[in-house]
Design a protein that fits this description.
The protein is globular. Helix 3 packs antiparallel against helix 4 (111-123), helix 13 packs across helix 14 (332-340) and helix 17 crosses helix 18 (419-432). It is 46% helix and 18% strand. The strands form four sheets. Strands 10-11-12-13-15-14 form a six-stranded mixed sheet. The chain has helices spanning 31-39, 54-68, 88-107, 111-123, 128-137, 156-169, 205-208, 223-237, 243-253, 257-270, 283-296, 299-307, 311-322, 332-340, 357-367, 369-374, 391-412, 419-432, 480-498, 516-519; strands spanning 43-47, 72-77, 144-149, 180-185, 193-196, 201-204, 212-217, 344-346, 352-354, 437-441, 449-460, 463-475, 502-508, 521-527, 530-536. The longest helix is centred in the last third of the chain and has 22 residues, at 391-412. The chain has 20 helices and 15 strands. It has 537 residues and is of the alpha/beta class.
């Protein structure tokens, strides 16, 4: 007998229960609702951000339906046709081939492979998929269910053609067309804005596929589900997660499935300290794992960062970074799109926030990455003889840097409105990367960005002493006196909440025509017994 397979956290592709820790995929959505939609011969959408578990759920649903004996169900991933772009003939050939392959593997059915070439030749690319499904549905008394994954990977006329062919056969279900079709992708079909080169027009997904009955969204793990997944690791290895580690994992991930698994894999399998099963997973290990993921720019985070360059994403994210009181460029379809990408979440009260703490850190770091990488600043320049971070020296140096470089660098930002905040965060990150971390809080209506710098000092009885420094960033609104009054109170509140002893308030003055001599200053203020240093920029 071979050695027992040691399972691990999955960070790539659909789960395999014999290899991966996992939750039962069919518990991730309302199975009763899905079965009812299929019984009612509905066509519907399942959508969720990337690496949320969509494919795993579809494959599990396919197995469930086929095991019931009531349906024939096949899954197909049409992303294979993305490379064909708007070459509908090439794309359709790839889709029919992939569909035939899945039918052979899952259902032991060679019918599609035996007829697809002839049907494509006889019907042409704009009706071949519809004709193939019509003929296949009629081959068996059991209704056919088709699960189409990565539908929004298709482009232009190829996507329009697929949607319209599925729509054209809809009236002939279930005897001569699939009883139910599930379209799965990142976005809801209603949000598609498809440029048709053939028709020289923009086609909306809603018009090309107006037979959709429902849109189901696959959500994040809740707190119980996250802890259940980590408990599987404990049960199989004996290694526990401390309560502080679990709290930190929840704060960082917000239950986003890839982040939950990636943090688990990093702490328990990649990091040497975490591979010792006799040692518990602690909050310190989790924070180190988080930093490793961000610095390594793993695929998931890299794809996320790439979306920040899209104009419709910028219109949503920039006001959050700047802490604007009002987002004048907000559009409902931009917000829906950005939420579908998983970048933001909208609370019950309508408030929009960055989706989780890791994304909240990744976004400003990614937007300022080129600036940070090009800086010559060194951590050791700002460490005093006792090993403490000298924030007075650091912010003083940034004042000079900002005076010399801000006009050049802020203009280079795509996110110009949040440019000053991003520039300071890049400067600060360059220094703190030498051993500490920065926690960020920002969002629409806050009128500020809160930074908490955590700098480790010496270890006392096995625990690190942490130097905590609060930095509040504000844009000058109205008069300096009014901005100061509000900013000092906000800084005091953040100091009190974080238990930090050192606080700084940075005010960026973007008033046209003001000289640097007028904008640059440094002063000390006392608010309810606490000293706060104010920096004018």
């Amino acid at each position: 007998m071979g050695a027992a397979v040691i399972r691990f956290f999955n960070t790539a592709g659909p789960i395999k229960p014999d290899l991966h820790y996992c939750l039962p995929p069919l518990t991730r959505f309302d199975l009763g609702e899905v079965l009812q939609l299929i019984e009612q011969q509905k066509y519907f959408v399942l959508h969720a951000p990337r690496q949320t578990g969509k494919t795993s759920c579809l494959l599990a649903l396919m197995e469930y339906l086929n095991a019931s004996g009531q349906y024939r169900c096949v899954y197909v991933n049409v992303e294979i046709a993305q490379a064909a772009r708007e070459d509908v003939a090439g794309a359709m050939q790839a889709i029919l081939s992939e569909l035939g392959s899945w039918a052979r593997i899952v259902l032991n059915d060679e019918y599609l492979n035996s007829v697809r070439t002839r049907i494509l030749a006889d019907s042409g690319p704009f009706t071949a998929l519809s004709e193939l499904l019509k003929q296949w549905a009629a081959q068996d008394r059991r209704p056919l269910v088709v699960l189409i994954d990565e539908i929004d990977a298709l482009v232009g006329d190829t996507l329009i053609s697929v949607l319209r062919q599925l729509r054209s056969g809809y009236p002939q279900r279930p005897g001569h067309f699939p009883q139910s079709i599930v379209l799965c992708g990142v976005r809801d079909v209603r949000d598609y804005r498809i440029h048709s080169s053939r028709e020289k027009a923009i086609i909306t997904g809603g018009s090309a596929f107006n037979i959709k009955a429902e849109s189901l969204r696959l959500g994040n793990f809740n707190r119980t589900e996250m802890e259940t997944l980590y408990r599987v690791h404990t049960e199989e290895t004996g290694q526990i997660f401390t309560s502080e580690a679990l709290q930190r994992l929840w704060e960082l991930s917000g239950g986003q499935p890839w982040l939950v698994n990636a943090l688990g894999y990093e702490t328990c399998f990649r990091m040497k300290a975490g591979r010792d099963r006799q040692q518990p997973i602690t909050a310190d290990l989790v924070d180190t794992a988080k930093e490793n993921l961000i610095l390594r720019r793993d695929t998931h985070l890299d794809q996320l960062a790439d979306k920040l360059q899209e104009e419709r994403v910028r219109r949503v994210i920039e006001p959050l970074l700047a802490g604007n009181d009002l987002a004048v460029e907000f559009r409902s379809d931009d917000v829906a799109y950005t939420q579908d990408l998983g970048l933001i979440r909208q609370q019950v009260n309508g408030r929009i926030q960055i989706a989780n703490c890791i994304y909240q850190e990744v976004i400003p770091r990614e937007l300022a990455w080129n600036i940070q990488s090009g800086m010559s600043q060194q951590t050791q320049w700002y460490i005093d003889p006792e090993g403490r971070l000298d924030m007075f020296k650091l912010l003083g140096a940034f004042q000079e840097f900002f005076r010399e470089h801000s006009e050049h660098w802020v203009e280079r930002f795509q996110y110009k409105e949040a440019g000053p905040q991003l520039l300071l965060q890049a400067f600060l990150q360059r220094i703190v990367n030498g051993g500490g971390r920065i926690e960020r809080e920002y969002g629409l209506g806050r009128m500020r960005t809160d930074l908490l710098v955590m700098w480790p000092l010496r270890r006392v009885e096995g625990e690190s002493e942490i130097q905590k420094i609060v930095i509040e960033l504000k844009l000058l609104h109205k008069s300096l006196e009014q901005t100061l009054a509000v900013g000092l109170e906000q800084t005091w509140e953040y100091l009190d909440r974080c238990g930090a002893k050192e606080g700084h308030l940075v005010i960026f003055d973007r008033t046209p025509g003001k000289t640097w001599e007028e904008k640059l200053f440094r002063r000390r203020e006392t608010v309810r017994g606490r000293q706060i240093t104010v920096w004018g920029m």
